[in-house]
Design a protein that fits this description.
single chain; 358 residues; alpha/beta; seven-stranded parallel β-sheet; globular
Length: 358
């Protein structure tokens, strides 16, 4: 069966060892013993043990070695005592798996050899099958055995962000080629995002069926869009991804950077939890998103470079703004920066746990 086909008898997963974890309870907007904490990019360059095991191993290759993925994913859980692990991978892994000619260049990011600029270029994007990413299934099996009652978050890049890389050929500040296609050839753009929605949904299905307890869709670059453009040209594809995995019953998280004006629309896409960057206070974000959603966030990552007292002050501001929320998962407003002191993260987890203990 293709990873893009919905199982005939897809049903919510029965309760597991992770079901009553603080993280999953917060995602379901249920009472928690303390506010759960995890960090985007918690496994990565801020950890010396990560740099040691990754030495000499290219990024994409490291994502395809199950035992290495397992070790890297577990490192921040051991060190920081976070309430959830996030699967170590990269948003372009499913594209590489289906044969797109790309690589992750150090200091640059994903670089696509043959950018998608015409309808003929869509031929690069075939369906993803579980066999394409068998190393993901193997790694998640190893991880869930090691993690026990700690939930594992699976993730994927959202169609818009993947499309931006594919059309631009790499990272961009202006997204001029992607936006030119979106405005100038809306039919091609819609077909591109629809195909990416199928690939993304297939990648998330593989992770859930292997044992992931929740999934996060990263629409990292959606903040470059006006609300009307997001609604018309991006929302349908993101909604398709969330609907494709709804039947599994695992929490679905939606996150983007600079998306303060899009928070309500991102909630409409179908996630159970909406991630918020540091630019919008959580109480205001809740007003924009509307009822029925948990929120995730949203300490500015650069605060961690300040004194311990300053970190605690800013953390209290986040927790106070979250006090009236239906559900709150504490996180940074973006990923951990590479030069962050790991001890600052460990102290932050302990502080949030202690401050919010029920």
């Amino acid at each position: 069966m293709s990873a893009n086909e919905t199982p005939a008898a897809q049903q919510p997963q029965p309760p597991t060892a992770t079901y009553d974890s603080a993280f999953l309870r917060a995602c379901r907007r249920e009472p928690v013993p303390h506010t759960p904490v995890w960090f985007m990019r918690q496994a990565g360059r801020s950890l010396p043990e990560y740099r040691k095991v990754r030495e000499g191993v290219p990024m994409l290759e490291s994502c395809m070695r199950p035992e290495l993925v397992t070790e890297i994913t577990l490192q921040p859980v051991r060190r920081h005592g976070v309430d959830a692990a996030i699967y170590f991978s990269d948003i372009v892994v499913p594209l590489k798996a289906i044969g797109v000619d790309l690589d992750i260049k150090p200091g640059v990011g994903p670089v696509v050899q043959n950018p998608i600029r015409s309808r003929a270029d869509l031929a690069q994007l075939r369906d993803l099958t579980p066999e394409d990413v068998s190393y993901v299934t193997e790694a998640i099996g190893l991880l869930t055995r090691e993690l026990g009652s700690t939930p594992l978050i699976g993730f994927a890049g959202a169609p818009f962000t993947l499309a931006s890389y594919l059309v631009e050929g790499g990272p961009s500040r202006t997204y001029e080629n992607a936006k030119a296609m979106m405005y100038g050839d809306p039919e091609l753009w819609a077909d591109l995002l629809d195909r990416l929605a199928d690939i993304t949904a297939g990648f998330l299905r593989v992770q859930i069926e292997a044992g992931a307890s929740a999934v996060q869709l990263f629409d990292s670059w959606a903040g470059a869009l006006a609300p009307a453009d997001y609604r018309r040209s991006v929302l349908p594809a993101s909604r398709k991804v969330f609907e494709a995995v709804a039947g599994y019953g695992v929490p679905r998280i939606h996150f983007g950077v600079g998306t303060g004006e899009l928070l309500g629309l991102m909630g409409e896409a179908g996630a159970d939890v909406v991630g918020v960057d540091w630019r919008v206070p959580l109480d205001e974000a809740a007003r924009r998103v509307g009822p029925g959603k948990a929120l995730q966030g949203n300490l500015d990552p650069t605060v961690l470079f300040a004194s311990r007292e300053a970190v605690e002050t800013k953390t209290r501001e986040v927790l106070d703004a979250a006090a009236g929320l239906e559900g709150h998962v504490f996180n940074l407003g973006h990923g951990v920066m590479p030069s962050t002191d790991p001890d600052a993260l460990t102290r932050l987890v302990e502080y949030v746990h202690t401050r919010t203990a029920r």
